[in-house]
Specification:
Pyruvate-ferredoxin Oxidoreductase, domain 3; alpha/beta
Length: 177
């Protein structure tokens, strides 16, 4: 049985929920059983937020991530709030500029925000994060499914910019790995 639990986190407004929706859409198109959940409430106004996705080759019997295999964090606050139940060998991806004393020594640090600015707008950091995640999952979820889901899910007129940020994130991960 194959099952991956993924948690994305950041602060409200960074597009974490959209990134999770795109990931779930792509995984569904690739033939996985998928569950996607997200946090609402005050988190949507700038506090720590999270969204989670479970990918499986079997029906998912519990809709919540219990112990993430992959954890991505764009802010120190979200890392501190959501890092406590990771699997022992979880892959941890962090924004390079993030300052925290709680980070795992083996966390992968990427210049997500700087790469999004390079793509054209910092608001595309979620797409850079998806590109990194796509690279990490490339043997499981071909990136074409994510590229197609981005085109379906991002706001009208922004697909080109979002795909560019995704491509930059993918290349960044391949370069650093």
């Amino acid at each position: 049985m194959f099952k991956k639990e993924i948690r994305l986190s950041g602060f409200g407004g960074q597009g974490i929920i959209l990134a999770a929706v795109i990931l779930a859409d792509a995984a569904l198109q690739a033939g996985f059983f998928v569950v996607q959940t997200q946090s609402y409430g005050p988190e949507a106004r700038g506090g720590a937020s999270r969204a989670e996705v479970i990918l499986s080759d079997q029906p998912v019997d519990y809709p919540k991530v219990s112990s993430p295999d992959i954890f991505l964090a764009l802010s120190a606050e979200s890392y501190a709030k959501y890092c406590h139940d990771l699997k022992e060998n979880a892959i941890i991806v962090l924004e390079e500029s993030m300052q925290t004393t709680q980070c795992a020594a083996d966390a992968l640090r990427f210049p997500v925000l700087a790469t999004a600015r390079k793509a054209g707008k910092e608001i595309t950091a979620n797409m850079v994060l998806l590109g990194i995640l796509s690279s990490l999952l490339k043997n499981i979820l071909p990136k074409i499914y994510l590229e197609e889901a981005i085109q379906r899910r991002v706001p009208s007129g922004t697909a080109e910019l979002n795909l560019l940020a995704f491509t930059y994130g993918y290349a960044l991960s391949e370069e650093i790995k």
